[in-house]
Design a protein that fits this description.
single chain; two-stranded antiparallel ribbon; globular; Dna Ligase, domain 1; alpha+beta
């Protein structure tokens, strides 16, 4: 996954090799779920209610009781559905926080977790945009990503 590796992008830049893809800074921001959530909030993107920073188990329960169950736990540094779990009550949440933190730490070397209200049967649509250094942009249309298994897109 070098295309999603901020260190690789930076190494290319530092070696005067043109990396075709986002900058290292953009990859760091987009690759960290907590930071990307903050970035989205700062530009006015509507977000499901939840944490705006890494949380411990006690904070997660407080947030869950505030926003209402079900909630989803997300590994901040992760992807591919690793570290993600849906909790429907306090007991599940406490157990899943422990499991998700261990999985996130092992898989991504980052134990940080966030929590947010889980949206049942959401629509997941992506719009892919390509741009170059000269200000030229094109979109590739919509991509339906709602059909998933274990948080992995199937289509």
């Amino acid at each position: 996954f070098l295309a999603e590796n901020a260190a690789f992008s930076k190494a290319c830049h530092d070696s005067n090799i043109q990396f075709i893809g986002p900058t290292a800074q953009t990859q760091k921001q987009a690759g960290d779920k907590i930071e990307s959530r903050k970035l989205a909030a700062n530009v006015g993107v509507p977000l499901s209610p939840g944490s705006d920073r890494a949380v411990n188990a006690g904070e997660a329960v407080e947030i869950a009781q505030d926003v209402g169950y079900p909630v989803i736990i997300k590994a901040s540094g992760g992807g591919g559905g690793r570290g993600m779990r849906i909790a429907y009550n306090d007991a599940e949440l406490m157990n899943f926080i422990k499991l998700s933190r261990g999985e996130a730490s092992a898989a991504f070397n980052n134990p940080d977790l966030s929590i947010e209200k889980y949206i049942i049967e959401p629509r997941h649509i992506e719009i892919q945009i390509l741009g170059d250094l000269h200000g030229n942009y094109i979109h590739l249309g919509e991509r339906e990503c709602s059909i998933q298994k274990r948080f992995q897109k199937l289509i």
